Amino acid sequence: MSPTSPTSRRPAARLALAGALMAGAMTLPAANAAADAPPELRDPAAAAATWAAGQLTEGTHAGGDHGLTADIVLGLAASGTAGDTADRATDWLAENAADYITRGGGAGTVFAGGAAKLALVAAVEHRDPGDFGGQDLTATLLGRLQDTGRFTDAGTTGDMSNQFSQSLAVLALERTGDVPDSAVDFLASTRCADGGYPLSLRRNPDRCTSDTDSTGMAVQALLAVGSTADAEPALDWLEGRQREDGGFGYDAASAPNTNSTALAVQALAAGGREEAARRGATWLRSVQVGCAGAAADRGAVGYTEPVANGLALRATAQAIPALAGQALGEIDGASSAPDTEPIDCTPDDGSAGATTGQPGAGGAANGADADGAANGDTSDGATANGADAGATSGTTTDGATTDGAATDGTTDGGTTDGTTATGGTSDGTTGGPTTTGPTTSGATTGTTTSGTGPDGNLADTGSSSARPLMAAAALFLLAGCAAYLIARRRRRRDT
């Protein structure tokens, strides 16, 4: 039996040791991940407002989408920043008010949800709802009030009004002191037996299906007019639907998303359910692109993950008031600072960092396409043909849906081939992720499926600088082990 020669033993041993030492050294950043992590956004609501303001086409509108532009104005006002941008966007809404109210239907056509949202924006921005772009929004809404207390649409396409239409009308008219008692009573009467509120306003107790979005809107409207007793059961319902991670899905079967969570957080905060609201806001921050993301994407709030894709602009617009802790009935743009707030990512220790200002105003309006359609949710209220269903493909938070047909209880939107997907549109066309279609004026169509931001940068805050190092360490360790095994086999052959 001959001894193993030192020359056959040492290279393998050294390589194995080097691999082990490299593995230990390269996993040190993981142990110190908390210390090396980028700083948190100092003001999530203001950061979201800065990003959203930078997505506006020509600094005035979201790719021609009235409902999304109105959502952004409300968000900017809630953040207390970007007052000048909000003024310009409000001017654009006033100039195009007639188109939004009629949806291109001409004289006699009234889209109640659109009129209500514009009236709310006018009040928040201290404009006159009685003369907004030449439109008397207050009179228009009151003219669509039925004897039952319900606000309805008028036009050849039929009545597409729903819970969003009703809630927005109550919120808007409360601002001017013109809200009729019958409208509030009707809203309260639509509550389902389980305590939540449905999207559809048809009177059919057997098909009264509560959902998070409609309940969040109804609660905010009821609390704004002081109907606390009617809101309490719905607040209990919302708390019962909150997931362990703090988020909310549209219904019990759907995953948490930003639009549903934001509306729930606003309602819970207004109703004094502070712990539930805090947990929901924490979930919203978890899907916000932070300082670890690409500079151009920082502040954006993704729909289900921290990615600034085509769903992010609408999600961000609706998340801002929730991040600011303000319900729709509380937002006031009077004291907003004129400019956006730079996104400060300077580490707390004062070392070199990055500060991101407002992106160029002429860039892509994420989620808005060339004709004004956008993916995601809006909030001005209509279901196609007034069909009942707790759920329809292509619903929007201005209530518009594509077909009004009852489907699977979700209003998360639809794709262009009719399958359900995340996000709806503000003009009644199907939304959902898509990568096709032309773009004009810097507006994007649909969503990107690769997770890239508006400038093509990947906004993935879930990655860590320690991961590549750990992977390299693992390779070195495997190499060392392999060399060690080879050396042992040689020893056996030598003996």
UniProtKB/TrEMBL annotation:
Q: Does the keyword Metal-binding apply?
A: no
UniProt cross-references to InterPro entries, sorted A to Z: Cobalamin_Transport, LPXTG_anchor, TAT_signal, Terpenoid_cyclase/PrenylTrfase
Q: Return the annotated region ranges for Disordered.
A: 332-464
Task: Name the Gene3D superfamilies for this protein.
Answer: 1.50.10.20
Q: Where are the transmembrane segments?
A: 469-487
Could you tell me the keywords of this UniProt record? Cell wall, Membrane, Peptidoglycan-anchor, Secreted, Signal, Transmembrane, Transmembrane helix
Q: Which SUPFAM superfamilies match?
A: Terpenoid cyclases/Protein prenyltransferases
- Give residue spans, biased composition: Low complexity: 366-410, 432-456
Leader peptide range in chain numbering: 1-30
Q: What are the residue boundaries of the Gram-positive cocci surface proteins LPxTG domain, all occurrences included?
A: 458-495
| CDD domains, per database record | ISOPREN_C2_like
- Answer whether the UniProt record assigns the keyword Signal to this protein: yes
Which protein is depicted?
Terpene cyclase/mutase family protein
